[in-house]
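Retro notes, structure queue

What went well: the backlog is down to a handful. What didn't: a couple of records were mislabeled last round, so from now on we paste the full input next to the output in the thread. Example, using Importin N-terminal domain-containing protein from Trichomonascus ciferrii:
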Amino acid sequence: MDQAFLGSLEETLKQITSPGTVKAASAKLQSDFYPNPQTLPGLIHLLQNHPDKHIRQLAGVESRKLVARYWEDDQALSQDIKKQIKESLLRSTVAEPEALPRHTSSRVISAIAQLDVDENNWPELMPFLHNGTKSSNASEREVCVYIIYTLLDAGINTLINSTVDVLHLFSQTINDPESQQVRISTVLGLGSISDQIESVTVDQPAEKNPVELFRALIPSMVEVLKQVISSDDDKGISQVFEVFNSLLLCDPALTSKHIGDLVNFMLNNLAAEVSLSEECRIPALQFLLTSVRFKKNKLQSLKLGPMLTVTAMKIIAEGYDEQDDEDDEDTPPLLALRLIDYLSNSLPPSQVLAPLMEALPSYAKSNNPNERRAAFLSINASVEGAPDFVANQINVILPMVVEGLNDSDINVKSGALQALAELASELHEVISDEHEVLLPLVFKVMDTATTLKIGKNACMALDSILEGLDRKVIAEKYLSDLAPKLLQLLSSTQDLQLKSSIVAAISSAAFASGKAYQPYFEPTIHAVEPFVRVTEEMSNDEVALCGITLDALSALAGAVGKEAFSPYVQPLVDASYRCLQSGQSRLRECGFIFLGTLAKHYGSDFSPFLSNVVPEVFKSLKQDEFTGLDDEDDDEDLGIGQDDEDDLLSKLKINSAMATEKEVATDTLGEIIVATKNDFLPYLEEATKNLVELVDHFYEGISRAAVIALWRSFISYYKIGNYPAWTQGFPVQSPLQDPAAALLEVSRKACLELLSGSDERSVTTSICDNFAEALKVAGPVVVGGESELEQLCGELMMILNKTHPSQTMDDDEYEYDGKQEEDNGESSEYDELLTDSATDVVVQLAAALGEKFSPVFNTFFPTLTKYCTSKSSTERASGVGAIAEVVNGLRPACTEWTQSLLDVFMKSLDDKDLEVRSNAAYGVGLLCYYSENVDLIKNNFMSVLQKLQRLLKKVEKKKRKSYGNNGDNEEDSNERGLANACGCVARMTLQYPDLIPMGEVLPVLISRLPLQDGYEENTPVFELLLQLFQQRNETVFGHREDIVNIFDQVFAQQIEADQEELSRTAFANPTVKPFESDELKNKVIELLKYLESEQPGLVTSKPTLQVVLA
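Corresponding output:
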């Protein structure tokens, strides 16, 4: 080899290791040496012979890069040179005394082997390695096992095809008596080979079955983990933990037998062991988090939830600095909080919330402030995953929180504020009903706050409470004091995080109070406008404040209306556009959020901004989240220190931010399409293409957002298409026109394809929700043809049977023998949300197809009836409610199932849970109304009336609302249950008036009116009253004064609903009105006119009705 060339190469590498010359030397390496094939032998020579280990290390890294370029080119490197390199590399690698160059040299061997071994161009390698693992020289064993690991990691077919032999080899090396590095490399090799093992159902002897062989090695892998922890081998600890985490993503058969033991070990021996360092505890907790994420079914069947929950609370009670959660640093208590969050989202409340509630009193009453604080932080972490269960425990939880707000310890008070904020966020109605108790306490905390953290958390709690508060309450009781107070606080603090919390509270106050916020609009917008001045040098806190301010401004726009806000639209859109052009994902995200909400409020008036905004949206959607991550292996191989690892993690965080930005941009695109409709048509083709590509995105947030945007776009264009009201039937004879037709076609196709393989629960739920909504709006045309109907129903059946990929991703089919492990049939509330969404699609299919749904119902009915007898009251209510709605869709076509349906409803009318009884009352009323099996209905008529009596009881004001039903709600009735019972009686009376004892039933029915909930049940009730008056029924005429009083209240409800609809923001839910249609309202007005003519003054004595009749 040319010594001058070699000397120049050596000098260049030296310069790369020096910070002052690294840039120029790297460029020289690229331009002068990379194009020359002789650089590869030169680098390998330096790897083998240079005295400086850093130069050897760098030479190895660079030679790896060139192997792929030159190794297979016979003109670049002769066969003799390649043979010499291979032979010398094996010797030099074994002889290398330093670990990092030795590992890098092993990677070079692996790079060559990837090209040669499978082509049988290096037949000496595998025997050399196999013999080397049995060498008496520990260093040689280390090298050979490490190279085998790197070859497995590279996916060499020769090794993959010899999995059983490799596992037998590893069963020896994992117990190496002398070298810990051999044992660690063996674990790494097992991690690599685990990706290649797939469970097989054929019988094989244990010694030839890779699954059994791998399972047998897991206890030894645990022993290696114990050894690296005992020896304080930080790198080994990190490597072995990484393997254990990766096992959770492999074929479930590999770990299913050991999951319980592994979780127990990681939790009790490591995560909860305070004597261990965080370097051991944190990865153990991360393993547990991954276990909950990917092995939740197994954890549930093993009933590990209570142990995980209670131990997590103990870890939280260790206490931590308030600043830790601000710094985004993982600590055992913070990860334990995340574990409770994951558990509550993934496992049934009986395994998480129940043990948590059992432990709460002792924690809340503890003399140790860290334990008191842990109680509230645990509540905060668990509410989102099980809001129904928590709502039913609110009488226990809320007094604790109130006590916590008065606690003398500032950290406990801070925890109570966080719990209150989360409770208010998830349980709007429950918490807002207690505003008279809670808000004064929050105001007191704000007035006496001694730290910024307390002030911030108080503002967060205030923000959440205000968002759910009734408009009249906030306007009449709080706004005049609250708005000036918040503005004064905003001007008096310099802390940006506190400013963000105050701005968020202002936003909620404006959102909740609507036009009542008008007097404070000008001072508010002048106070917050400086926060949206965008520069590239903004800190993270400044970016966060900018985003929250833009969100608040969109709430202000909705509150005060277009006219008042119009002077500020253009400058704020300009500020948002600057955000979109920023180099920071977080700033771009802020800009998208504001523009999306502005479009939602301004509708077609947003169209002038399309030409600037839409290209920025498209640009965001086309970003590649993996940019900059291609060379991560090389970064690790440099081994220059921890900085390289930090750099890689930093890149991952940047790309995570990019994914979040794309999710927000996708949401914004949907908002803009819906807002601007026909004005968006020039961009619709490209937008649709982008959305379809994102539907199966690996990141569930983006996938979900794309699904929602597609279906919302279809519904929007359908609504402006002037199509006639759809009618039941299938197939559809009146096709749609573009753009609605094209959007429907791509949305249906993309979502059906995704649904068949989606393993993300939230994505599957979103697909179901959007199918149901589209069916509700557009009817049977959404279904498509017979094949699409069959495919959709097949997926729905899988979801209802809990065998869909999004429900079974961690099931172990290898052990499956036809019997599921006993888990009491329980589900997490999010799992129940998925099955509930699927039943909603079934319901809407019945509504759209009508009698054509009958053959399909034959398939679904047995599965739905299983829900009606579930141990979960939520599932029972969902099943009974779905069957009731199917009856409403089938109408007379339900007749053939009358007996079976009656059995379901009659049994459910005796259920201990109120919502189940309520849904059964609704269903049996529909069955009596529609079924043509008259004799069967008549035979059960009086039994139905008797079973309704409990639901027909008057509802005390304190019990008018029922929050959730995860614990069985054994109250006699509530407003919803009463409404369904009244509707049932009305339908039964309309269909079989001769069977009803009018003198007994009608006075009871009238005394329960007007309905306060379930306004859709007003329709059969009002139709009954109209019919009875038309027939001049004596009983109803005897109660005409009561009925006039009832309609006086009903029209007051209608007027209030009309006013609310006029003043509500663009973001509020649709207003529910007591009259389902104008036609029904007009019939009632005609009745009132008739009654007034019969008895002058009876109606017009009521001021409200006087206006109605005018």
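Agreed that this is the format going forward. Reviewer comment attached to the example: The radius of gyration is 34 Å.
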